[in-house]
Amino acid sequence: MIRTEELLLNVGPQHPSTHGVFRIIVKLDGEVITDATPVMGYLHRGTEKLAENLNYTQIIPYTDRMDYVSAMTNNYVLCHAVETMMGLQIPERAEFLRLIVMELQRVASHLVWWGTYLLDIGAMSPFLYAFRDREIIINLFNELCGARLTYNYMRVGGVKWDAPDGWIDKVSEFIPYMESKLEEYDRLVSGNEIFLARIKGIGVYDAETAVSYGLSGANLRCTGLNWDLRKTEPYSLYDRFAFDVPVGRTGDCYDRYRIRLEEIRQSLRILRQAVEQFPEGGETMGKVPRVIRPPEGEVYVRIESPRGEIGCHIVSKGKAEPYRLKFRRPSFVNLQILPKLLIGETMTNLITILGGIDIVVGEVDC
Amino acid sequence: MSEEEKPGGTLPEEEETMQPSPQQADLDEAVSLLCSRVHDEAVAEAYLNEMNGGMPVLIIRSEHWLEAARMFRSEPALGCDYLRNLSGVDYETYMETVYHLLSMSTGKQYAVKVRTDRDNPSIPSVTAVWPAANWNEREVYDLLGIDFPGHPDLRRIMMPDDWAGHPLRKDYEPLDPEV
Amino acid sequence: MGDLLREPLTWGHALIFAAAAILLMGIVLGFVTYAIYFERKVIGWMQLRVGPNRVGPFGLLQTVADVLKLLLKEDTIPRKADRVLFVLAPVLAFVPAFAVLAVIPYTQSLYFADLNVGVLYYVALSGISTLAIVLGGWASNNKYALLGGMRSAAQMISYEVPLVISIVGTVMLSGSMNLRTIVEAQSGGWFWNWHFLPQFIGFGVFMIAAVSELNRTPFDLPEAESELVAGYHVEYSGFRFAFFMLTEYVYVYAIAALTTVLFLGGWHAPAPFLAVVPGLIWFILKFACIVFFLFWLRATFPRVRVDQLMGFGWKVLLPLAIVNVFVTAGYIELFIKH
């Protein structure tokens, strides 16, 4: 008698394609997954606990380290929450700078995703192309705030540093450059038959499932829902700019891929308008009390990070430190659908689907 | 039940904040639906959170929460199909979980709070209503020790499985031997 | 060489053969060293990098340093591994890789074994390396290695068939399985006499199946570093790992040489007026183009999925190869015989 057995395979926490220390325990029947259990927490640093003993300015560097691929949007969500509580007015120049860095960050984040996703699928070259172009953004940020990854740039009430002379010009030079490079990306990858065969029709779910699982960002929009917080619940200055929200139809990995590439284009469109309207002079810090003490109460604010809806829920007791600070991390919530998508897929599709969700483990574990 | 009174303005020239805010109507509707469909005393408190742009907040009694959650999801007038956020808060005298709900079709938002006893915290799980609650509830269980009866797989998610204590509790002793 | 082979074996001849074998091995090792260097450089340029440039002038000694490192590394054998098979697998992979080189003719006079069944000898021996990969994957007692080994077995079996059948057309046209005769059949002065044009279906199928046999991108599923970490050789370190790497590159050499012989006219010049250039140079040029083609693929393609690989092998390549055989038979029957 031939007896077959399921193979219990531990993917991660050290695995090249789990994007950090994420781990999935899969049961394999041949190469087909019959059960998947995600395990996380390897990068849990207790940000929320640490924040309870820090004042709001001190928390900002911790947000950099949550979604370390998109630190600017994390900075923003915390500052935005505190500003909402205190009813602060942000000087226009500061708000423009914030918007510009957030959109640059979205481009940079999607570039990292694009490169690593193709690396997961087995193509090595696009990764280096993406990082070449991301490097320009990183250098722009470096010039602005002296850091390449963890910027600690925004403050409650404004931004820490004004743009140096000529910085805005460099941003406007970057926009046409990146647009031409996007065409190169499309020529290089988007039509490749093997690539399309690998991602089309993989990891499909419908809009209802996406909503019930609380998915956000490209993971939600790929099902055809037009839901971008920059449009539906505008924050910052997004209601001043014209841009489109790309949506998919089928809800597969290919749609998520197209949406992210198109979002880079739309971000560049926003950037072009923002650079044109950038105010000449003005303050970069609003009138903020010396010690930031939001009044007693609670607030939940949310913005559209490259990965989806990042939210910040603050409970304040009127002290300089938050009583409770909770981040709604898009990677964490988006990842919940993973086990459902994996059943019946092959080991290879595991990587395709996981990469398509676009997680950053620093954010999953917080 | 106490509802925050809003000064009602009649003249259109007056500032917008003086108008009865549209959220007040949402809140009233939710409260009346909950009271009539779920239980007379399902809602312990309801008010608008002015700080958060007038977000309607409902405090729902834990024993009626699961039924209320089903209604929030299925009742077309509420239609909260999207669970944005689920946080747990330790208020030292009691525990609380906050659900930020959203209706994708109408854009209506609600913050629902459910309070529970601190010594033996337990709140019915809403994973069956919103699958998005699954890991969030595990996280709250892990970090605050709130039990969620009805959860399909209530295990620690962030901390190691053999960890003692729940770190986000206010009385948690941070100096573990491991630290 | 041919005359020596036909004469009775004496001690002197044996010494010459041994010296020639060692010389060939030296050439092959040199090729492997610089193929790796070349691959890293070429892919580096394609990927906007500079490639190795630290060890020696232009990084020329990089591979030497890497090999030294591998030889000096600790040789670990997992405790639960099947020791005998674990040790045997790299050897078993390596020996056939070198053995197949015996039948490759480089020029009219420079060849080693003049086998009548050269094609069959090549295909049969190269199949043994599959066995070694499966053994290595099994003996490592590692799940990733096992999956890699099984993938490799499935892939090799699926692609060996179209590979062999794609050669049949060439064999029919030249009427021999002797690789030298096949090259002779492609003479005629012009490049359109080479088999890759009349046998374009066979050539296409052969190239695809060959890339798959080599486990190179886009068919590098047994290794698939983004899924199976490193596949069958995940537990191998030091010189055992070096043997697997060496095998892979020796097969690159072998496949490039075989393609040149079967389809690209071996040592023949592409045009009569170019025949002044020695045949060996033409051979090396054609050979280098194939090697470059393999490296080029690696820099530009993503990896296919297992089921797609199998489907492609059985549903596309195999029927195409068989059609090619029938078309060739019909062509010979109608145009050549009469």
Automatic annotation (TrEMBL), chain A:
Its main location: membrane. It holds the Pfam family Complex1_49kDa. GO terms for cellular component: plasma membrane. Its EC number is 7.1.1.-. One of its GO terms (molecular function) is NAD binding. The keyword Heme does not apply. Keywords: Cell membrane, Membrane, NAD, Quinone, Translocase, Transport. It catalyses: a quinone + NADH + 5 H(+)(in) = a quinol + NAD(+) + 4 H(+)(out). It is found in: Cell membrane. It is a peripheral membrane protein. Residues 120-290, 291-365 form the NADH-quinone oxidoreductase subunit D domain. It comes from the Bacteria. HAMAP family: NDH1_NuoD. Belongs to the complex I 49 kDa subunit family. NDH-1 is composed of 14 different subunits. Subunits NuoB, C, D, E, F, and G constitute the peripheral sector of the complex. NDH-1 shuttles electrons from NADH, via FMN and iron-sulfur (Fe-S) centers, to quinones in the respiratory chain. The immediate electron acceptor for the enzyme in this species is believed to be a menaquinone. Couples the redox reaction to proton translocation (for every two electrons transferred, four hydrogen ions are translocated across the cytoplasmic membrane), and thus conserves the redox energy in a proton gradient. This is NADH-quinone oxidoreductase subunit D. It comes from Paenibacillus sambharensis.
From TrEMBL, chain B:
It comes from the Bacteria. It is an enzyme of class 7 (translocase). Residues 1-25 are annotated as: Disordered. GO terms for molecular function: NADH dehydrogenase (quinone) (non-electrogenic) activity; NADH dehydrogenase (ubiquinone) activity; quinone binding. InterPro entries: NADH_DH_suC, NADH_quin_OxRdtase_su_C/D-like, NADH_UbQ_OxRdtase_30kDa_su, NADH_UbQ_OxRdtase_CS. Residues 60-173 form the NADH:ubiquinone oxidoreductase 30kDa subunit domain. This is NADH-quinone oxidoreductase subunit C. The lineage of its organism: Bacteria, Bacillati, Bacillota, Bacilli, Bacillales.
Automatic annotation (TrEMBL), chain C:
Keywords: Cell membrane, Membrane, NAD, Quinone, Translocase, Transmembrane, Transmembrane helix, Ubiquinone. Its EC number is 7.1.1.-. GO terms for cellular component: plasma membrane. This is NADH-quinone oxidoreductase subunit H. PANTHER family: NADH DEHYDROGENASE SUBUNIT 1, NADH-UBIQUINONE OXIDOREDUCTASE CHAIN 1. It comes from the Bacteria. Belongs to the complex I subunit 1 family. InterPro entries: NADH_UbQ_OxRdtase_su1/FPO, NADH_UbQ_OxRdtase_su1_CS. NDH-1 is composed of 14 different subunits. Subunits NuoA, H, J, K, L, M, N constitute the membrane sector of the complex. It comes from Paenibacillus sambharensis.
